Amino acid sequence: MNEPVLRFPAEWEPQSAVLIAWPTADTDWADRLGEVEETYIALVAAITRFEPAVICVADEDVEAYARARLSSARVDMTQVRFVEVAYDDTWLRDSGPITLRREGGFRLLDFRFTGWGGKFDASQDDLLVERLHDAGTFVNSSRYPVDFALEGGAIDSDGEGTLLTTWQCLHERHPETSREDLTGKLSSWLHQERVLWLDHGYLEGDDTDAHVDTLARFAARDAIVYQDCDDPADSHFTELQAMGKELAALRTRDGKPYRLFPLPWAKPIVDEGRRLLAASYANFLIVNGAVLMPAYGDEADSRAQAVLAEAFPGREIVPVPCRPLIWQNGSLHCITMQLPQGVVA
After folding, report:
1. pLDDT tens column, 221-263
2. Does a structural domain hold residue 206?
3. Domain tally for the chain?
4. Which residue range(s) make up the domain with 200?
5. Can you give the pLDDT at residue 38?
6. Does pTM top 0.70 for this prediction?
7. Which InterPro entries does the annotation name (predicted)?
8. Most buried of 6, 74, 90, 324 (most Cβ within 10 A)?
């Protein structure tokens, strides 16, 4: 029997919903739970203006609490669906399903989630896709387990067979595997014709080993938005400038340079211990008709909004306050996973 034709859709294609998990005292957010809950409320309010939100909750009490908080914030609860499932933490970009579209349905790729190379316990998160699938969360979908560590934040698709990723992250996860072999594996599982590798770019305080979704993202088949740094005194300047040159050297499938949209650099944000936090505007989320943009309370927020408006014409750019998230080294895209249209009822 012939293999069904499969395609990895771009994030800007029509969506059924956005999948998130509600933060609790049992997650990484315990010490700043109140601040983070406010971010989640703002996030759900923004998502539900455009499409449904599917929210994982640890138990009935968490659901009741989340429902009350969202209702009191006047979130449209007809656009919210709760699913009870166990999870270690709320980084669903990396523990959620990577969805391929096929004729008549979808394939949910369930890669191993190892807590970013064993940095954190991930035993519950590694079972998340299987448990959501078994609970009937998805429709017209089959789960496809892959015994290989890969996080959704490590890859970005243009929907037409080109994948963007970083060598640092994939090499860190699989140090014995050559770039040629990794290219072959990614191309096979994700049904890609090309894999574009970035050798430069990182953010201090990033646990992910340079996930591409904090650095550079497709905005169209011929356009890439990326995190720039224009301060020569900043520790990121050399690497992010080198990444910008790498992106300028990439070519589309038609052999043309990509249209590039550099994002501004926020002033350094540090925690109480003077640890630099990874504030990236590239960690935006595309939803139906809009782009949700991480905002950090910095003067660069408005400039980032203008860049995204240029990169995504016709979409509303909606800032979501994400400063509490970067305390745990992630941001808006990291805590969400879009589900293509038709994956949930």
Report:
1. 999 999 999 999 999 999 999 999 999 999 999 999 999 999 9
2. yes
3. 1
4. 6-340
5. 98
6. yes
7. Peptidyl-Arg-deiminase_porph (IPR007466)
8. 90
